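COURSE: Structural Biology Practicum
ASSIGNMENT: Worksheet 4, Part C
STUDENT ID: 0417
INSTRUCTIONS: Below are two proteins. For each, the amino acid sequence is given first, followed by its structure token string. Answer the questions at the end about the second protein only.

PROTEIN I
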Amino acid sequence: MSQITSLVLCDNSPLVLSGIVQLFETDPRFVVKASMTESARFLEAIDRHNFDIGVMGWNMPYCSGQEALRRLKENHRAPRIVIYTGDGSVSIPRQAMIEGAAGFCSKKEPPERLVETVSMVSRGSMVFPFMDVGAATADPLETLSPRETELLKALADGLTNSQIAKSLNISLNTVKFHLKNLYQKLGVGSRSQAISRYLRGTISG
């Protein structure tokens, strides 16, 4: 008899969460020990449950998937993590790998691909889409355009979007467009996370 893999599932969409719970509960290879819509509760579940693999989103409120992975590095009970997200940014699989995830699956793939990814991770594999291995270890700050770097510095200085637009002589919509691209490149989901990433890079550099 094959070994059963225990899971805890986390997604900020109740509808998506319900779907993936059903997906794994109908597969005899897996047992779902818990599910939740908040990453903070997912982190708490690690201390309450002994499970093999956690499946969680990336753009989670309050504590992103990236931040959760960083916290798990300090937890000796940490399970293997598969990131499951609908965010199409090409930088996210790279960031997830750098932060210690064992696998990545896009919500744009058929649901069966998530099951396949988790199954492969349970057998000891790392599962990520094809990427430039050299780029996987590159500092995302180095991938920013001069304009994006300018915006990031402005964020760190505490400027609002309106103040940035005025100082750079661009429209507010253009600021928002650049910030969206900036967040994707850094693999973050908020202004505070972007500033934190910039400050870490400045200090280490």
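PROTEIN II
(use this one for the questions)
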Amino acid sequence: MAEWSRIARRIRVPLGFVFAVLYFWLARPTWRFIALGAILIVPGLLIRALASGHVRKNEALATSGPYAYTRNPLYLGSLLIGIGFAVAARSWWVGVALVVMFFAIYLPVIRDEEAFLRQKFPEFEEYAQRVPRMFPRLLPNSNGGDNTAGFSLDLYLKHREYNALLGALGLVVALAVKITLFPS
């Protein structure tokens, strides 16, 4: 399983580009479904943006902001974005591929990252007992972390999280072009 985690970590970005081509080919978008998908895409982008402004990779365990609700807000945001774009595509195949990719690629990566965090940060185990892995709790974790730490625009820019926004906008434009040039 550890070997697959390393492979999954390496192939997830290139596989994402392959998936984008397949996505565009299978998508049967309409304006209405793009709008419905945006109901999930926009919060997903916001969650990712907030999370990136709280995480100091390999320096400190992130427990503030979205990390007070879920241990993996970046992946939660990505999942919401993915589901939103699956809705916008109006294709069951896209939805099935998304679920398969999540369980085959992202779940092993999350487990591998958690093993690293357990080794690097002794407080991770206590944090993991209080904060759920993926689906957020309703109230923030108030124990064992600095939940008052604010969002850092410098961290957001350092992590280049704006690329998620640019990618989402690019995909919406591609869907709009498909609707306009290739109406179904």
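ANSWER KEY EXCERPT:
Q1: Residues 2-181 form one domain.
Q2: The first helix runs from residue 2 to 26.
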